């Protein structure tokens, strides 16, 4: 049995969630360092978790 970091332990940082209504239009979006860091940490955690799975 292999021990892996739990993907639920990834720090989401200052993630912002936005809701819109039918009357609102999104004019533009920007990425933030917090979002980029969260995404990178999530990808790394997923890769580490996947590498712990053994086939056979």
Write down the overall geometry: elongated
- Helix coverage percent: 25-40%
Global structural class: mainly alpha
The H/E string reads H
Share in β-strands: under 5%
Largest sheet: none
Give the number of helices: 1
List how many beta strands DSSP finds. 0
Radius of gyration: 17 Å
Distance N to C terminus: 13 Å
Low-confidence stretches: none
Kindly report the oligomeric state of this protein. Answer: single chain
Mean pLDDT: 69
Protein name: Retrotransposon protein
Organism: Cucumis melo var. makuwa
List keywords for this structure.
56 residues; mainly alpha; 1 helix; 0% strand; elongated; Retrotransposon protein
Summarize the topology.
Elements: H1 33-51
If you had to describe this structure to a student in words, what would you say it looks like?
There is one protein chain. Helices cover 34% and strands 0% of the residues. It has 56 residues and is an all-alpha fold. The chain has a domain at 27-51. It is elongated and about 45 Å long.
Outline:
The protein is mainly alpha-helical. Helices cover 34% and strands 0% of the residues.
């Amino acid at each position: 049995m292999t021990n892996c970091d739990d993907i639920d332990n990834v720090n989401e940082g200052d993630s912002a969630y936005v809701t819109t209504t039918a009357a609102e239009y999104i004019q533009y979006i920007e990425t933030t360092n917090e979002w980029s860091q969260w995404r990178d940490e999530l990808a790394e955690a997923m890769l580490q978790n996947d590498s712990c799975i053994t086939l056979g």
